[in-house]
Each structure stands twice: as structure tokens, then as C-alpha cells.
Amino acid sequence: MFSGGLRAAVWKAAAVVGYAVQYGCIAHCTLEYAADFIVCSGPSMEPTIHTQDVLITEKFSVMMKTVNVGDVVIARSPTNPNIFICKRVAGLEGDKVCLNPGSFIKKYRWVPRGHVWLVGDNMGNSSDSRVYGPVPYALLRSKVVFKVWPPGDSGSLRGPPQEMLQVLRTMKDTGR
Amino acid sequence: MQAARRYFKSFASGFVVAVPVTVTFLDYVGYVARVEGASMQPFLNPEDRSFNDVVLLNRWSVRNFKVNRGDVVSLASPRDPEQRIIKRVIGLEGDTVKHTFQMPGTRTYKNRYVRVPSGHCWVEGDNFGHSLDSNFFGPVSVGLVHARASHILWPPQRWQRIEPSLPTDRGPLDQETIDHLEEQGAVTIPKT
Question: Tell me, what CATH number does B108's domain have?
């Protein structure tokens, strides 16, 4: 039916498509189950992470449920499933967290089962669990391990800022 | 020896191709799952039998988190990230739904009216009173939705495509009722 040259070309095209599918699938599995890159935007994690910073995140901690208080994580926004948020974990299920650190009369609440409490490092300019409440653990996607860009500021992330320690310290009072 | 090595090599390379392709297919297209429990009776698992219904979970149709009222969806339980639950979507963001809850320690039920917040939906099992659903844990984030149940595959006599449908007595309230309730200040707008 085909001439020899045409048949060879069709086989070659099929092989190229096959390889593309194969490598696409390998890339999907790596990005979904091992590690991926994130470009950040927004002021909520300043001064730890600025807009346009590039982060490497890993998926194992979230899958193995070894995420800890103080880790910076990527999650699906509970109020819009199509966008991702980058926040610091301030409380795990069963922890007591402070709703208004810094104010004189403090309010506390418990983090319900299966949820985490996420707070941005820039506490004055961040919409986080203090606005939309505890976030279901199943919305967490990955944990940030490394900043690769900008080059001068790359490396592992800084710890939480001073005013956030207040949130984290209330947890220690409860015996964690 | 040579043949065994060649055989092992081709087996390993087949493995490297097959596993990622399968995983990607299951992630993007869909997979088959067995329904457990009585929460969706009488629609799924209609009688107590020794075997459960098997449904096709379509992941492609929820890739942008677009769900419709009446869809049967599989989602991660907000109380336990390891657990998948299957429920019917009753209301979407902005809808006002009736929240029926049991008074603690009693057998009496009370109603209140809830506005579903943005990015959330209200899910319920068809089997009222035997289902841990939004009546128990409140509106759930749409990001928890994992797949849409698109077909019942087993048992064969009940093979069917699952069309979105709301139970007659459930669903978002109409505008007239909402206006009436708002005059009384009876609509709750939850924070989560």
C-alpha cells in the first residue's frame, strides 16, 4: 500500500510519538510523586520568600505525613482549588493555635482532626488560616526544601520570623 | 546465561515504560473502584449483599475542579486525608442549603441554613442519617474532589451511566425562600 520511503517515515513518526509519551509520563510521575519546581508570587511569605523566587519542593513528607510545625508547604487554596498557596505550618491536628498573635487579649482555638493551620510569614499581609480557618491536610501538595533562585539568596529557607514564633510557642505550652 | 541477561534487560526496560505510563493514565483519565458502605443507598450498594458496586471514577472531567450539582464525586475526607469518600454534590459556592444536624446526645434533628463559601461545595450521601457528610463536617473545599463517578460497572444488570440528579427533597434553596430566611436573619455564613 505504502511505498518503502513513506512506510519508513510513518514508523519513524510513530516511534517519536511513542518516546514523547513515554518521557512525558516519566516527567509527570517525577513532578507528581517526587519533587518539582515552584515560582512564587505575592507578598505573604516575605521576608523568607519573595515574588519570582524559585523553590524546589518534595512530595514525600506530605505523602508520609511527616510534615512538621515550622515547615513551609505548598497547598491548594481552600477558597479556590485552581491556585496554590505557600505558607508555613503553624499547627497540626489537635494543636492549640493563637488566632491573633501580637494583640493584648489572645484568642485560641484547636486545629480539628485531619487539618493543619497555615500562616504566612508576613503576618500583617497574608490571607491564611486566620481568614479561612484550618486547611484540610489532603489539600497539601509538597514541602519546600530549597530555594534555587535568586542566586545570592539560595539555599535552605530561613526559620520563622520573630512574631510567628509567638504562634509556634503557644503550641509548645500545650506539651508538644 | 546470555539469554537470561537479555531477557532480564528487556523485562526491566518494559517495566520502566509501563509503570509511568500506567500511573499517568490513572492520574489523568480515571480508574475503577469498589464502593464501600451504605452512605449512598439506594443509589449505590442498594441491598446488603456480599459484594459491593464497582464504579468508574473519571478524573479527566474534574481536572479543572468543575463539579455540577447532582454529580456523584469521590473526594478525600476532610477529617482523614487517607480516606476517600463518595458523595453527591448538593450545592455549589454561593448556594444556600439546609443543614440538618443531630443535637449532641439526643435523637432530635435541627435545621439551619448555610451559605456555601467560595471554593467550597456541599456534599451529602443519599442515605440520610447513615452518612458522614457535609451535615457533619460542613462545606468542603472543592480542591478535595478527586474524581467524578461516571458509570456503574458492576453488577452488570445495573450497568449505567451516572447522570447528575438531585434527590427531590434536597438541593439549593430557591431565591424566594432565601429572601424569606434572610429577613429572619436565619442564614449562616460559615468561615470555612
Answer: 2.10.109.10
